[in-house]
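Instructor's aside before we start: the two examples that follow are unrelated to each other. I chose them only because their records fit on one page, so don't look for a connection. First example below.
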Amino acid sequence: MGEREVKIKIALCGEGGVGKTSLATVFVGAGFNPKMRLTVGVQHFFKDAQSEGRKIRVTIWDLGGEHRFRFLAPTFLRGARGLIFVFDVTREDTFLSLPRWLEIARSVVGDVPRLLVGNKVDLEELRVVPKEAAEDYARREGFIGYVEASARLNLNVKEIFTLIVKEIVKGDLVWLE
């Protein structure tokens, strides 16, 4: 069986506290932890998929979003084949910081597929970033799309990772349990 395994690195970008780690932990099946602490440094998550007979090993790199970890960004991003930019729909500052993250990412990995995610839509009554503003930003900056999600409710979490990986492998995708 000469099945070749394809390895894909996906990097999560965005400010601290937007829910990057929660999205990744929910996606890999570890569930939502309301007591999740801010990520210190870098965390890795793994999930396997299959696309047209090939095994796909997806590694999700999660960088702490606090400013003190920003110096790690170039090393962290190197080799990423796809990027997921996450902001918190209840915190405008996390949306306004996206251009800085995008600039760093473009300088390191160029124009790889990237997806914009507005997280924490379960807190709709606290929303300050309109969906239209995020959709407009995603369109203007060449993102493959914009998805609203909630790690807490497991809303659109699988879809986020499916969209970006399908764009990278250019084919259908089945997640392996």
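Example two begins here.
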Amino acid sequence: MATTVYETIELELLDGRSIVVKPLNLKNLREVMKEWQKATDATNEDEFLDILINCTAIAFKQFAPDLAEKDEIEEAVDLQTMYKILEVSADIRLNDPNLVAAAQELAGRI
């Protein structure tokens, strides 16, 4: 009997469509990780958001190829939905309160 070792979720997008999100296959995960490495070089929020959108576009190649274009993604998802997609598909946790607190402490905001 097979055992599932990963999380699968169904998300409703802003345009009313639903997608099933599960971990990426290794080919797509490698692409996401290459793009995600660019986040350390982002100098402002706009550049960081572009990196998040590019990572989400790569994930959409697997889940919803018809939405894998940057313009389509910008119309179909909000920030929290994008965070959840990246969390489930690539194990990138962007809204973890512990990580946010640590980043703020490093930035001297606390």
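The helical segments are 26-36, 45-63, 70-76, 79-90, 97-106.
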